[in-house]
# Entry
Amino acid sequence: MEKEKIEKYWSRFPDTYDKNQEYVVGNELLNEITDALNDLSDLGEVIEFGCGTGYFTEMLAQKADHMVATDLSNELLERAKIRLKKNSRITIQKENCMNTSFTSKKFDTVFMANLIHVVENPLKVLQESNRILKDGGALIIITFTKTGFL
# Structure
């Protein structure tokens, strides 16, 4: 799928994104994921691919020196800016997770949730993650669905 179609698809959800997460994943699993993420520490410089409305962003930013939350959708990024406006450790910007504008070996942690199984080319996302991840850095991927996608 070309970038514009993907962006248009995800841009339909700024008002329902969080509820969709809860529906697809279920509150019980989201609570387990939240607990696991709260156990993390010292994430350093973090990038999040597919931040959506910032559902996990604020929690991770508490464990980071700085966090860059990215997404393709302007509408979702605008919602994330509203949600996260009080946190000075978070930068929000539009990026394509398959080909970012960042220099190599920039981040200590790459994080993505519910993304890898919906992108057109998961291998490209993993290659880009490896490129921008510092040696010895952490790649955190959460992929989940309770009810599946149509």
Observations:
- The CA atoms of residues 7 and 72 lie 6 Å apart.
- The mean pLDDT is 86.
